[in-house]
Amino acid sequence: MKKTFITKIPDQPGSFLKTVKIISDLGLNITRVSYNNSIDTNTLFIEVTGESEEINHAYEMLKHDGFLFKEDNGNVILMEFKMLDKPGVLLPILELIHQYNFNISYISSQENSTSYQYFRMALYIDNPYKVDEFLKSVTSLCEVRIITYDKTEKNLDNTVFYISFANGAAKKLDLDKENISELISNSNLVMQILEGKNRSPYKTFEYIAKFADLLSRYRGLNFSPRITSKCFNDYTIHCIESECGSNIYIIENEEGYIFVDSGFALYRDEMVKLLSVMFDNFMFKKRVLIITHPDIDHLGLVSLFDTIYVNQLMYENFQLENEQRPNFREQYREHEPYVKISKILSKYTPPKMETLTVVDDHIERTDGMIGEADIHHLHFQFYNGNGGHSKGEMIISLDNIVFTGDILVNPAGYTNEQREFNELAPYLMSSVNMNSKLARKEREMTEKSLTDDTIVCYGHGAPYWGTH
Q1: What dotted CATH number matches 2-64?
Q2: What is the second-level CATH architecture of the domain 223-458?
Q3: What DSSP string describes 381-395?
Q4: For 223-244, how does the pLDDT look when each residue is reduced to its tens digit (9 = 90+)?
Q5: Contacts for 343 with CB less than 8 Å, ≥ 6 apart
Q6: Order of strands across the sheet with 103-110?
Q7: Mean pLDDT of all residues in the chain?
Q8: Domain spans in the chain, listed from the N-terminal domain onward
């Protein structure tokens, strides 16, 4: 157990020795002694570790001998503040510390020949519930790193977890201060939702940190998707399965390229490089995108297309995003923080409204079709889903080929890397479905409609290329 005593040492020889002797005689280890003249010139912060019984005994003895400044249940957190090396940057941080009535028990800084300066401060905090608000405020001013803290205090434990996670993600994914602040806030919301379900905050942040780590791990030279292709009479379908994000299908014919879904935005540069290798003059040929549903792991390449086919609900979803209002998933409390975290980490931007073409033709039919279109001389049919997985989902049909989005996925066809990544969302969102009962019903109906000759292009996992 760790404890910080605020002691008031009398101004006479041997006072500090007597205080230390009380602590040492009980077998306690003094791990830090610091001085804070903002309280009193005779005040010392003494941090000790040991068994709780001995710590309580030391407390009573120091109190009896008049060495205890006040009765307290406070904690000391040692933090490092990274600031631009220019005049006045420290002042707003000190003002914020004063606003929260925290005492500085230690401060240290030195030059390091860079454009930044690093201030280490130990803050004595008598109310750990203030830490949450303070850290949210101070991270809007500069980057903060938690060095040490009392791990026996649950509220501090949770707060330090999401602060440390956010700073780690910021370094891996080049996030700015505004995004770091948003990441901290939404990580805290995930924690609160999952704690309400009696899930450990340790596992919560392990999963969030792993989400950021995996996204970062497969960037650049480590981006190595699985690619399979199937040739037909008039076109070829290529399936690109990255380690993180949706499958990307590319239908290639003489007219150009028709994409169905497009992965995470974080891998845009890697995908452009790959496509330039796979196809001659890729950037100079006609290309359009069809979206199966408006989840951000399917929307990463929207900026590459001037024409994007969506249904009416998807159009409304993107209209909300362009107006900076919560999209359909964000309107669902249990999914909102995860979606916002995903947007930040994957560097998502919504498609421009002028690029969207709505496929709904409002013709009454009995087969569930909502529209059809000839694209690059190929005939596509569009069917709305029931919204079980995602509001705005649809199935796309081309000849005997169906693109199911996440209405159907193929876990048995995951690579090890895909399996590791895809286990994260169900935990952090409680469920990847907006309505699991409807999603199950839709999955069963869709599977019943398939034949052995149907080629199934799943939202995730290897496609089924049929029996031939």
Answers
A1: 3.30.70.260
A2: 4-Layer Sandwich (3.60)
A3: EEEE--SSSSTT-EE
A4: 999 999 999 999 999 999 999 9
A5: 296
A6: 103-110, 116-125, 75-84, 143-148
A7: 86
A8: 2-64, 75-217, 223-458
